[in-house]
Amino acid sequence: MPVRLVMAGADLGAQGPVRAKICGLTTPADVEAAASAGAAYGGFVFFARSPRHLSISAARELAVLAPVGLAKVALTVDADDAQLDAILSSVPIDILQLHGKETPDRVSQIRARYGLPVMKAVGVADAADVVALDLYSAVSDMLLVDAKAPKDAALPGGNGLAFDWRLIAGRRWTRPWMLAGGLTAANVAEAIHLTGARQVDVSSGVESTPGKKDADMIAEFVRATVAA
Ligand SMILES: O=C(O)c1ccccc1N[C@@H]1O[C@H](COP(=O)(O)O)[C@@H](O)[C@H]1O
């Protein structure tokens, strides 16, 4: 399905229910759970240190199962062209999620090279980090506003940690954006109301153990998101 990111800038402002992304799908049952719950996006992680990491062949097998309506997002961390070429030549991906220290120039290069919508993740821990969001909104199709990973964290994201949502309360950017970081069915409504997010992303919060998605938790998360 073509992803309507350009229109989404307007669409996501006010219309329709808040959209959910379920990140770190690793099995056919996860894809089915995300789709049947009504998630708008499913994320595939290409980062070897993650418990959700997928080989290219495994990702391809999952991606072809995704129905129309579940946009397929490839999450990479400081990937070089060779890694991106390998992923995108085999896996039918709709959106690239850049979750490393990619500079604005690198984001622009990736957008130009692959012609896919790019969502740049920016970690937020304090007000200074919010400035980076303005910088990246000039070069990305979408922003992902995530908690900044602690320095000693094994992963740059997917740690189940939230940030102080008041830091972005009332903030708007020129691009569609998604809220992430420590979201669960129990806190997503509060996060949406406080930040005004129209899209939310979850990984750890719908898992029974790290890397293992739980279909009931996915359904509960999407229900809480839509009802917010
Ligand atoms: O999920 C991962 O394993 C991961 C690995 C490396 C970078 C980012 C990762 N996940 C992203 O992190 C945020 C927040 O996740 P959580 O809900 O707090 O666990 C989300 O955007 C994931 O896409």
TrEMBL record:
Record key words, sorted: Amino-acid biosynthesis, Aromatic amino acid biosynthesis, Isomerase, Tryptophan biosynthesis
UniProt superkingdom: Bacteria
EC number: 5.3.1.24
Reactions catalysed according to its record: N-(5-phospho-beta-D-ribosyl)anthranilate = 1-(2-carboxyphenylamino)-1-deoxy-D-ribulose 5-phosphate
First-tier enzyme category under EC: isomerase
InterPro entries xrefs: Aldolase_TIM, PRAI_dom, RibuloseP-bd_barrel, TrpF_fam
Keyword Manganese in annotation: no
Pathway it works in: Amino-acid biosynthesis; L-tryptophan biosynthesis; L-tryptophan from chorismate: step 3/5
Coiled coil stretches, renumbered: none
UniProt keyword Amino-acid biosynthesis present: yes
One Gene Ontology term from the biological process aspect of the record: L-tryptophan biosynthetic process
Domain N-(5'phosphoribosyl) anthranilate isomerase (PRAI) residue range list: 20-223
HAMAP family, per the entry: PRAI
UniProt xrefs under PANTHER family: N-(5'-PHOSPHORIBOSYL)ANTHRANILATE ISOMERASE
Protein name: N-(5'-phosphoribosyl)anthranilate isomerase
Gene name per UniProt: trpF
